[in-house]
Amino acid sequence: MSEIGPVTWPPDPIETERLMLRSSEARDRAAFIELLASPEAHAYLGGPRPRDELERDVPPVPARWAGSFVVELDGEMIGNVLLKRATEHSRPAAVGKAELGYLFLPRAWGRGYGTEACAAALAWLDRALPGEPVILTTQTANTASMRLAAKLGFAEVERFHAWDAEQWLGLRDPSTIAETSGGPAGVH
Q: Which residues does residue 99 pair with via DSSP β-bridges, in sequence order?
């Protein structure tokens, strides 16, 4: 995986109805460590990393690269949305496309923040790289992620077995999204 591509970074913060998406700052380090050490957040991602390892390895300003958005609620980081280029992927249909990833602290689950933040990040991508198709991969057992993919307009390309579980690969074609939805609501 590599950075998303030739985009202006960091962009101005993106405000939605309830959230702000912005570039990472030093004040986010503790929340990143909490997120990466969370067994709940990593239940479908191979498990959490040990906290002592994270304390040692996470840089002073974590995840500061083009396409990595901190999701902030009321001044605090609650998650991370990533848009990266899938330069190496196990599935040929994914190679070279933009890939959406997201992780939220468990205390932020179940309130629609993932949908709101991912829709805003995808709207930014649609402006920054018009016409860019986006892929998303998740375990089929991760029903919350499967629902989120559907809400965001991803359509199944294939299912495959990897990492000891059935995986789902979806594609979001921005030309069909724009025609049917008029874009995400609540993005300012």
A: 84, 135
